[in-house]
Each structure stands twice: as C-alpha cells, then as structure tokens.
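Protocol step 4 of 6: structure prediction from sequence.
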Amino acid sequence: MLTSVNETPKIELRNLKLKDYQELKVSMIKSYNKMPDEYWSKDEIRTLVNKFPEGQFCIIIDNKIAGCALSIIIDSKKFDEDHTYQEITGGENFSTHNNNGDILYGIDVFIHPDYRGMRLGRRLYEARKEVCEQLNLKSIVFGGRIPNYATYSKELTPKKYIEKVKLQEIHDPVLSFQLSNDFHVKKVIKGYLPGDAESKEYAVLMEWNNIYYTKTTKLIDTPKTVVRLGLVQWQMRLFKDYDALVSQIEFFVDAVSDYQSDFILFPELFNAPLMAQFNELTEPEAIRGLSTYTERLLETFQDFAVNYNINIITGSMPMVIGEHMYNVGFLCRRDGSYERYEKLHITPAEEAAWGMKGGSKLQTFDTDCGKIGVLICYDVEFPEVGRILAEEGMNILFVPFMTDTQNGYSRVKICAQARAVENECYVAIAGSVGNLPKVNNMDIQYAQSAVLTPSDFAFPVNGIKAEATPNTESTLLVDVDLDLLKELHAFGSVRNMKDRRKDLYSLKKKK
C-alpha cells in the first residue's frame, strides 16, 4: 500500500519537467506492463518539453509520477484523418509540432496501475481542455486504442464494437473513458499503431471540440459574449397626438441606451393609444386607422436605432399588406438596416374584433450580438416555432406581448419559460400595463416583463434572470452571457437540443 487507509494522498498536477524523467520512466514501464520496452526516451521527452512545455502534464502523488499526458499542436490542413501514429508524431521526433496549428493532438496518456481508480485521467484531460481553450485551438484529437477489441473481434466489426461500448453493453478501458469525457468518435483507423494486438491494430479517432474557438481575432466587430437587454414595460395612457407618443418612445430609447444596452424591446401594440381618435369607428376600421402610423413609426425607430446606437425590437403594430391586416414588428439595427417579423398565430379575439390574419414570416435574424428570434405574444405558446428558430441558431428570443388579465399573462410567461428550457436560450418578454378607457377592446392591461433562462447550475434556480414589478411602468436592464449557453449545449446536466430522438421524429419548416 502506498498510503494508509486513513491518509489522504496529496495530489499535484503540473507541467512535466525534464528532471522528472527517471520517475516518468518507472511509471511508464509499470503502466505499459504488457509492452515493457515501449517507453519514451529522455531525448524524446526533452524535445517535447522544449517544443511545447504547456502541453505536457504529470500528476505527482507521494513524490511519484502517478500519471502523465503528452501532446503536440498540429495543423489540421496538413493531415488526413487516415493517418498513422508515426506520421502524426513525425516518426516520434515531433517535427509535426506547429505552434501556429489549430489542433491539440494527444500522443500519450497513462496512469500508474497503483493509482488507478482515483479519476486521475479526468484531471489530465481537464488540463488539456484548459490549454486548448487558452491557446484558442479548434479541438483536441487523438487516436485512441480499443484494448478490449481482441476479445470480440471474431464476432464484431470495429463499428459494432464501438456501438456496444457507447451503449455500455461492453466496457473498453480506453474508449469508455473517452466517451465519458465528452469526446466523440470521428472514424476508425486501421493500422494506426502496428503491433497493438489488443486493438487488432485499430484505433478510434476521437475529438473534443472547443466551443470557445474563434477562427480569427479581430480588434473590432468581435462577437459579443455578454449582451445587455433593455425591456420597456409600457404604460398605456392617452397621448394628445402622435408627437407625444414619439416623445415617450424616445425617452425610453434614450434612457436604456445610456446604459450601453445592445437591445431594447417594446411590447405588442404599444401604440394602441393612438386608436382613441378612431373610437367612433368600428373596431376593424379603428385598427386600420392605427395602421396608418406604422410606416412613420418604422422610420422613427430606424433613426433612433442609429442615433442612439442600439438595436430596437419595435414590439408590434398593425399593418395592411395587400388586402389583409397583419400584426407586425421590426428589428431596427443600429447600422441602419431593418427587417420585419409577423405574428403567426392570431387569437380568436383579434380575428373577431379586427379581422387580423396570421403572417408567414418565420426566421432568425442576424445581429451584431448573434442570432435572435422574435415571436409575438400568442406565438410563444406554440413550441414548434421556437424549436425551429433554435435549430437555426437563435440564442435570444424576444417576445413582445399584450395581455389583459393575469391568467392571460401566465400563459405567455409559462410558455416562454418552457421555450427557454427546451431550446437552451434566453427569452425576454415585455408587455404593457395600465388601461385605455377610451379605446374599445383595449380596456385593461396586465404585465410583468422578465428575462427567462434555461434551468441548470449556471443559471438562476427558478429560471428567472430578472423581472419587473407587476403593473408598473418601468424598464428592466439585464446582462445575459452567451458563453453560458455554449457550455449548456455541450456539457449541461441535460441537453434538450442534443438528446432529441431524431430517429423517431423530426420538425421542419415548410416552404
């Protein structure tokens, strides 16, 4: 026994040094007891340490080397996936190492038999992953042995063997470990390591992708990782004229932009107070009267987006397109461009009172803060549309809404929270409060604007990043971290996007 039952060994993980060689050699010979002559020479270790000191790790326990991980950097463009160990290591002189490469290539990992079962291999791989991220490398790749394959080679092809290891029907000491550490199989290589009888000279090319990798580093226009959202909880009130409404809009844009927000979100049909002048008309005529302001408001929002350097989600407004009335809104980018989104699902009340028709535009939008989606109120209660946007790469879903009662609001909020969890994205919802006594069909409003998150350790336990005071005019300023979404996609406790059974069902958008 190396330590007594009551002793806890001191574990040190650090970079390997040339002075460690004698201990390293002893550990290698013990680790490869079936191949006792297969150990690195001192000159080879010297070359590795000189060329790439950051990539060589060892674990020290009781002044002995308990484990080691060796690696180089390669240029992926110079090597085919069908390569051998000799080719990738340059005949084991490591001439293939390239400091300007994009792949961290693992050339050896071993744990001394006396220290197995202490999860030391996981520590070595976590160290490799950290180096990969710090050096902005695309991925970690290596050819993994499958030492249990010889036992099954007469009855299973390498492909079938790998499938059974994935399903945990067979345990392979190397492949099972790699799969549990978030590596995935790229392909099977024949003849990778001549003489490896246990693996029948097969190797499994494994890869771990660095989700933080960026192809180039720019001094300007770099994608933002922390995005600031500004939500407007709008007070419905009568305005004396159009200019008074615009002044209130500008007040909120100005206030939110002062905090360097990247987006500002307005509620659904926030411009409804302008309908008061059409109150003597029928409801369908009144909503068409309100629609006459939409083009003017779009131009105003475009100017504000540029002048205040903020991306504006304009909530929604009625708009006549062809013969029909639609509920639409606009993404006005701070570079001056804009795009339109449309409410797809019309409530029975909207259809009966206003003759509204559902739109047909369902798409994500590119912004300087990544891809976003916009669903207007009732749309968020249909999970299919949110999932389609998520599959197109949406990170933030904006939901302008208008609800009159608390139960109507609860439908929107609960469904929005579900969209955040199932699509692993942030969801921002903004609504109106107060009342409009002189506007038919718009009497009362209830809202509590909020930013909702997925449900995992990196996020609030209740899935709510922040929320406004109910039924009070206010703004909500919230920072959301897009890197947390990347980590969730790759390493979450559950992975809703990855774990879908696409072999049983699928979802697609019709042309």
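Step 5 (inspection) to follow. The chain has 14 helices and 22 strands.
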